[in-house]
Structures are given as C-alpha cells and as structure tokens.
Design a protein that fits this description.
Helix content is about 60%, strand content about 0%. It is mainly α. The chain has one domain (about 60-95, about 110-315): MetI-like fold, CATH 1.10.3720. It is flat.
C-alpha cells in the first residue's frame, strides 16, 4: 500500500477573487459579459441636436414670406426717425408729383415733399394705431368671453345680447357716427376701432371657453374647489391662446383697412399726422397725371395686410392640451 499518496485537501469556499478569475476564463471568441445584460457593445449615445429657431417656428413657405413682410413693417415703424431721409413735413423740391429719382426714390407728393419719408412715417402711425386697437379689442373680448363662460347663464345671455346689438351695426357706419359726433383724434380712433371689432373677439373667445369648460381637466379643477378666476386663467386661457392670437392678427388687418378707409374719407387721422390712407387721399389729384405717388401708399397697405395674413396662415398649430371638438359653442 502506497503511503506516499497525498491526502485530498479540504474543500474551501470560493471568495470574490476566485469568482472574478473564473468568470474571466472564457472560451476563445466568446463575448465578455456586460453589465447591461450581455450582447455586443451598444453604439455610443449621441447628444440630441438642438433644433434651430427656424425649425422650431415651423412656418410654411408662405408663412416665411409673411414673416419677412411683417418684420419689414415693424422695423420701419420702430426705426422710422432714423431711416427716413427727410423729416415728415419737409418740402425738398419745387416739382410736385415728381417721378422716381436718386434724390427722391419714390417721387414727391402734391407739395413737393419726399414720398419715401411720408410713407415711412405713415406706416409707423398705421401700425401703432392698428396694433393698439387690435390688442385692446382682443384683450377685452377674451376677458368678457371667459367671464361669460364661467359666470353663469344670466351674465352670458346679457353680454351676448348687448354685443349682438353692437355687431349689428356695420363697423364703418359705427366709426362714422362716432367721429361725426365726437370729432377725430388718435385716442378716439383707437377706441372706435376696438369697440367695432371687440364683439367678434368676444364671440370666438366665448365659443372656445364654453367648449373647454366641458372637458375633464376643467371638471376636475371644479371638483377640487378651484375658484372661477383660477379655472379661467390657468385651465382655460392657455388652451385659447393660439386661436385668439390668430384672431388678433386678423383683427389687425381689419383695423388697418378701417382706419385707412376713414382717413381716405377725411374722417380719420388729421394733419399734421398722416397715415397710409391719408397719403392716398392727399395725392389723389395726381391720379389723372399718372403720378406713382398715388400707388405707393396703397401698395404699402397691401404689403402690410397681405403679410399678416400669410404669417397667420403659415403658423403651426400648438396647444398645451388637445381640445376635443364639440358642436356646442355659441349662439
């Protein structure tokens, strides 16, 4: 019997180093186990590229054309004193209804004033008046629409019937009555235009608010005991912003045409001020001579109104919550 055979060693537990060594002993060509569950190494994650401002705006081709036209009008309105070559009332040539030249790029008016400078200042006044009236009409109409939606049927019916009476009067006839009764001033023109187009904003705001008030998250806010002001301003108003901004842009074009029409009739902006409608009226005598100064203010009105419409049509739809379409929304 061989007594020199070594005795078997006692089994000992494996420690962490043994596990690491054994796990590293892989057959040739095998993939090393990965901490995310095995398999080949995933490709590196690339950081998301930030979208440009143009991509985030999402405008169509027509929208970009309108955006450029609106930006041009706004730049002219803001920087009119610095970009106009002459003061608004300066007579620069003895030739009335002069044609295009290097000194007078758009000719001269019926008194020999630079038409380019007159159009620049006229665009500034037209934009400011129309923007103030459109914003006043939109803010007032949206506020009354929200109030009608959350205050109850009695207040809703009362305001709706009163504003129906205002809507029944044509805007130009209403403006002519106000101007004939109280005279013409810049403040009165803004108030008249705002009152004329405020019922339309009210109708759209009320219709949107009534539709939104029937949705679940508004009902949940009511169940929580939130106040009417909270529901109107936090739950309902954010979902109305895009349609109301679109309507405000349309009201802006309507106000531009209304004020220009009043000025053309001699009841709008009065001297020494002049808007684009006044410039057409002042130089109407040059129409028989084919003077280009009659066309230039009308072309400026067209650029402003068409640009706003193109921009509105090219805007993408955005909203915080999707509003389900309903048929109950107005009288």
């Amino acid at each position: 019997m061989n007594t020199n055979r070594p005795f078997p060693q006692e089994a000992r537990p494996m420690n962490n180093s043994d596990l690491v060594q054994r796990s590293s002993a892989l057959p040739p060509g095998a993939d090393r186990p990965q901490p995310w569950g095995g398999g080949p190494t995933p490709p590196p994650v690339r950081p998301a590229r930030r979208r440009s401002l143009a991509a985030r705006m999402g405008l169509s081709t027509g929208g970009w054309i309108g955006f450029a036209m609106v930006c041009l009008a706004l730049l002219v309105a803001v920087f009119a004193p610095w970009i106009a070559p002459h003061s608004v009332g300066a007579i620069v040539t003895p030739d009335v209804f002069a044609g295009f030249s290097a000194k007078l790029p758009l000719g001269s008016d019926y008194l020999g004033r630079d038409m380019l400078s007159r159009i620049i200042y006229g665009t500034r006044l037209t934009v400011l008046l129309a923007l103030a009236a459109a914003l006043l009409a939109a803010i007032t109409g949206t506020t009354l629409g929200l109030l009608a939606a959350v205050a109850g049927r009695a207040i809703d019916e009362t305001m709706s019937r009163l504003l129906d009476a205002v809507t029944s009067i044509p805007s130009k006839m209403f403006a002519l009555m106000i101007v004939a009764a109280f005279g013409s001033s810049l403040t009165l023109l803004i108030l008249t235009a705002a009152i004329s187009y405020m019922p339309g904003s009210y109708r759209i705001a009320r219709s949107l608010a009534v539709n939104i008030s029937a949705l679940e998250y508004v009902q949940v806010a009511r169940a929580r005991g939130e106040s009417a002001i909270y529901i109107a301003c936090v739950e309902m108003l954010p979902n109305m912003l895009h349609p109301m901004l679109t309507d405000t842009g349309l009201r802006f074009t309507f106000v531009v045409l209304l004020l220009s029409g009043l000025s053309f009739l001699g009841l709008g902006v009065q001297p020494p001020y002049a808007d684009l409608g006044s410039l057409v009226r002042e130089n109407i005598a040059g129409l028989g001579d084919g003077a280009p100064v009659v066309i230039m203010p009308a072309l400026a009105i067209a650029i402003l109104t068409v640009g706003v419409n193109l921009l509105i049509d090219g805007l993408p739809h955005r909203g915080r919550r999707k509003v389900a379409p309903t048929t109950d929304g107005g009288h």
